[in-house]
Amino acid sequence: MTVPACWNGPLRRSAVRSYPAFSPGRPCWRRSWFCSPATRQGHGDGGHGQGLTADIEAEIEDDGLRRKATRVTWLGVGANVCLTGLKGAAGYASGSTGLMADAVHNMTDLAGDAVSLLTLRVVAAPADEKYPYGYGKYDAVGTLGVAGILLVTAGEILHQSLESLLEVVRGNPCGLQMAPMALGVAVVCVAVKEILFRITLRVGKEARSSVVIANAWHHRSDALSSLVVMGGIGGVMVGLPYMDAVGGVMVAGYTAKQAVEIGWGAVKGLTDQQTDTRLLHGIREVGDKLMVGGIITGLSKVRVRHFGAYCLVDLNVIVDPFLSVGDAHKRTKIVRRAIQLEHPEVHEVLAHVCPSDVQHD
């Protein structure tokens, strides 16, 4: 393998001590800048530092995760269609207002699935002149949409529950026919929605998609809603008709809480609030390792901007003021690639070279 000129002498030894994966004698890491001459020719000495091979591999990985997120969302669509029909039919046959309200609740889930699918399609578009950083911010916009649907759903559940509670207070509790059948349908709905929640949440975390994660929590709110319906039906069967209404109020409060938390998280992402302490700490740890290796003097002004499943990092690389411009730039490339090795979600690092004899905030 051809080794760059900057990879000789003390610079090579210190970098290998800090990051053994950079050693020319070791198998090449997927995102290493020093993988091949073709990779190094991706951007020349420009500010981006994104090698061609790394870009292609990252795009393949992102496409695979997007397809996985789309598949799990379509799985939710199919489940919601089936559960809406099942709950509606069982609610009509048994006379359960709880199951009927839950069927309407499931219909709102289809709107959430539609928002998720549309968002996944939009954020998959490549960067262009209009959106030079890509369409990742629309992930947060879609998350706000899902949060809004959750909030509307919470209001709907609260309204239905208060109406049912008033009927109980007035002495007109609803009667049920075929209660065991209605109870069985509610149990099935709880199980299906909980399974969907766990699958969707796992895929959303893998794809780092806030809109898929928000949709997962929508499935969890559905599971709890069906759980309350199940408890209400059981309460009516044992002579406690008010349980349905009280449980509905509790689920409405939980759903509203989830909507606010998910929506506020999306707002933080849209406004570039520095909330990812794990990533910030990890980048500083990379800087500390490179400091020990003598490659740089330090890092400062580390900032992160999230664009859906990926993020951009902006930082200052502090180096010895007596280094040549070329040598300082080569060390900055090592910093950039070290960060991307440790944190694959970082698609670009904008690094500013600063001499150590100048004060840095």
UniProtKB/TrEMBL annotation:
Keywords: Membrane, Transmembrane, Transmembrane helix, Transport. It holds the Pfam family ZT_dimer. The keyword Transmembrane applies. Residues 74-270 form the Cation efflux protein transmembrane domain. The keyword rRNA-binding does not apply. It is a multi-pass membrane protein. Residues 297-355 form the Cation efflux protein cytoplasmic domain. It is found in: Membrane. This is Cation efflux protein cytoplasmic domain-containing protein. It comes from Prorocentrum cordatum. The lineage of its organism: Eukaryota, Sar, Alveolata, Dinophyceae, Prorocentrales.
